[in-house]
Write a structure and sequence with these properties.
There is one protein chain. The protein is mainly alpha-helical. The chain is 44% helix and 6% strand. It is built from seven helices and three strands, in the order βααββααααα. A three-stranded antiparallel β-sheet has the order 1-3-2. A hairpin with a 6-residue loop joins strand 2 and strand 3. Helix 6 (113-123) packs across helix 7. It is rod-shaped, with a radius of gyration of 29 Å.
């Protein structure tokens, strides 16, 4: 155990956010820190650290009141868990709502979400997040028009 730690470090060791730690400190569950004389910085010395960890372990504050601590979610997941398979994303009707509206305004009245999804995947295999919306509309419009041109229709 370190000789002195900050309030943030003490909260981290107790498995709490700094804000929650301050709430419990104000309620009398955890002891107040001592302050360095040189800069008035709040710290926990070795004795206070042991008291805080004991409060956490026993679920009983220094004021004698019981306290229940919830386990943090990231502690519940084992550190060596197997990587999960990425689920296939299904195109949603609302996913390309603006794009459908823009394409219909340009004359592609019967455009479907599946056509748009196919065009976006083909045109932007790495994703289209960094591309301007107007450029995406233009590229998808031309792509669908080429696919539906008289030469390609059987």
């Amino acid at each position: 155990m370190t000789d002195i730690v900050s309030v943030s470090e003490m909260a981290r060791r107790c498995g709490l956010s700094r804000a929650r730690f301050y709430q419990l400190q104000k309620a009398g569950i955890f002891p107040s820190p001592v302050y360095m004389l040189s800069n008035r910085r709040p710290i926990y010395d070795q004795l206070l650290q042991e008291v805080c960890l004991e409060v956490r372990r026993k679920n009983c504050g220094i004021n004698g009141k019981p306290i229940l601590f919830y386990a943090r979610r990231h502690h519940l997941v084992p550190a060596t868990s197997k990587p999960t398979k990425a689920k296939a994303k299904r195109p949603k009707a609302n996913q390309h709502k603006e794009l459908i509206g823009a394409l219909q305004a340009l004359g592609l009245v019967n455009v479907t979400p599946a056509q748009i999804e196919e065009a976006v995947k083909e045109l932007y295999p790495g994703g289209s997040k960094s591309t301007d919306q107007a450029e995406i509309i233009r590229a998808v419009f031309l792509h669908i028009r080429r696919k539906n041109s008289a030469n390609n229709v059987g």
